[in-house]
Amino acid sequence: MSKRENVTADILKQTIAILKTEGSSGVTMRQVAGKTGITLSNLQYYYADRTKLFQATAAFFFNECEKTILNELSAIDTRDGESAKEFIRKLLDMLIVDGGNDDNHGIFREIWALMLRDAELAETVHRFYKNYSNWLVQLISGFTSQPEKIISLLIPYAEGYAVIGADLTLKRQEIIEMLLEIIWQMKVKT
Prior knowledge:
Layout: H1 3-22, H2 29-36, H3 40-46, H4 50-73, H5 81-95, H6 103-115, H7 119-140, H8 147-164, H9 172-186
Helix pairs in contact: 1-2, 1-4, 2-3, 4-7, 5-9, 6-7, 7-8
């Protein structure tokens, strides 16, 4: 990586760390600069204001989430039925999480809250979800003829579960198995 790429990655990682511990209200340009070990003016060279910083942070964070999913799922061969089912089970296990006990979903909640007051950030988040949906459709299209339906069910459910999942009557694993059964009934290809 170039020096610029290293600096921007460090800035974004430090912003995420602050978001995790202090929430969006705790993120100031000065604090990010201090945690990164650069001057405020240097930070502003990379990101002119908090909106630009949060847009880049959201894009970076979402990209890291996609890399994690791909890395976790790369070992599963989807050419046979049982492996494909295991692939979906693993995907569900990664997406259906209790947001109250998961730092990464805390970041999602902070970004969602910020986007309610920031149209530019909202555009970034909406663009992410559109790309994320398309990416997941492609990811599962090798073994189902209805990937759009599955992903249209899965993403809103996973996002909502992150917020209220701990309050539901079924346990997380029961929900994963229920969703797996629903998705598997939609499966057509092997």
